[in-house]
């Protein structure tokens, strides 16, 4: 299933409403050009003072299967189960220091914006992409010699859409369930904060 638009209360751009986090992946190669387009989208994300603190370590199954396998092994077992057909893993890093060597308090926020650009670009290209927090960040640092100043925030897996019926039953059910979010009233307050709600 590739088309699962969000049931929004108010109309929003179809690219945003249509983006979701699938787990059903097809075992079909993604071109290097498609991967580069994802990174180009991230390159143009906004950041405080235009510092651009995002960095990415990209693992393409077709280009470097050994490195891909090492990165795949760092996913938690649950994520490994449904990522068997993933073609690309993108480790999203935040550079925690600015050019002066001082702490950049916006690093994670800005890197998150760049990660969202990857997810939206993947959706625009007709690809499936899913951001995950379930990975061994320390193991990633050790396995790929990441400098201390970089924090691994997430890993995004990318593939072509697959058949949800090929997933384990519990995951297939989640894949096909109606999409849901907290209400606007739950997430936004106007004019100030109130604890009386």
Automatic annotation (TrEMBL):
Keyword Oxidoreductase among record annotations: yes
Entry's Gene Ontology molecular function annotations: oxidoreductase activity
Keyword Oxidoreductase attached: yes
InterPro entries given in the database record: Nitroreductase, Nitroreductase-like
Coiled-coil segments on the chain, per record: none
Keywords: Oxidoreductase
Top-level taxon in the UniProt lineage: Bacteria
Residue intervals of the Nitroreductase domain: 16-156
Family under the similarity heading: Belongs to the nitroreductase family.
The name this protein goes by in its record: Oxidoreductase
Organism: Caballeronia glebae
């Amino acid at each position: 299933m590739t088309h699962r638009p969000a049931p929004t209360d108010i109309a929003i751009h179809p690219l945003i409403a249509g983006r979701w986090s699938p787990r059903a992946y097809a075992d079909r190669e993604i071109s290097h050009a498609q991967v580069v387009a994802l990174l180009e989208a991230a390159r143009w994300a906004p950041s405080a003072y235009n510092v651009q603190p995002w960095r990415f370590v990209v693992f393409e199954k077709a280009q470097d299967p050994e490195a891909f396998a090492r990165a795949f092994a760092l996913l938690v077992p649950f994520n490994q189960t449904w990522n068997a057909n993933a073609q690309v893993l993108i480790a999203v890093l935040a550079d925690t220091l600015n050019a002066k060597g001082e702490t950049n308090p916006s690093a994670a926020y800005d890197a998150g914006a760049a990660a969202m650009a990857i997810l939206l670009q993947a959706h625009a290209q007709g690809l499936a992409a899913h951001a995950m927090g379930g990975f061994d960040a320390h193991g990633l640092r050790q396995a790929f010699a990441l400098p201390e100043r970089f924090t691994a925030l997430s890993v995004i897996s990318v593939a072509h859409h697959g058949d949800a019926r090929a997933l384990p039953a519990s995951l297939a059910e989640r894949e096909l369930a109606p999409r849901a979010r907290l209400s606007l009233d739950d997430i936004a307050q106007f004019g100030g904060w109130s604890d009386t709600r």
